[in-house]
Design brief:
Blueprint (H helix, E strand, L loop, with lengths): L5 E7 L5 H15 L6 H19 L4 E7 L3 E7 L20 H8 L2 E4 L3 E7 L6
Antiparallel strand pairs: 1-2, 2-3, 3-5, 4-5
Length: 128
């Protein structure tokens, strides 16, 4: 892994198909960066939740960025909605409200400033 961070970024208008596209992009990028499993699986799941959240609840253009450093994968999703993402209690029959709780549960850290919601995962590089 080079000393400099490796970054993958995409910008798009809200579209429900983008969550799937960003999952595929993330899988390929993490494979090239040799991020080990199961961390890569957790990162892909978080990407799905954060992109979906931005598409459904965000405003304007969505910017997706994933950065891999020597031992951390950071996922960031930005849109123009100034309201931060929050942990919610979804009812047993609720169809939404679990995404940020899931990101909270699987990531090592997460935060939402309103326009940006990010999460981080510590990882070990896969063997060559």
């Amino acid at each position: 892994m080079p000393a400099a961070p490796l970054t993958c970024q995409a910008a798009f208008l809200p579209d429900p198909t983008k969550a799937g596209e960003m999952r595929q992009t993330t899988r390929a990028f993490l494979r090239r960066c040799r991020v080990s499993q199961p961390v890569a699986g957790f990162v892909v799941l978080a990407v799905s939740e954060l992109v979906t959240n931005a598409v459904v609840h965000g405003e304007g253009e969505v910017v997706f960025r994933i950065t891999v450093t020597v031992d951390v994968v950071r996922v960031s999703v930005t849109d123009r909605n100034p309201a931060p993402a929050v942990l919610k209690e979804a009812g047993p029959d609720g169809e939404s409200g679990r995404g940020i709780r899931l990101v909270h549960a699987i990531s090592d850290a997460w935060e939402s400033s309103g326009e940006e919601t990010w999460c981080e995962f510590r990882y070990a590089r896969a063997a060559a």
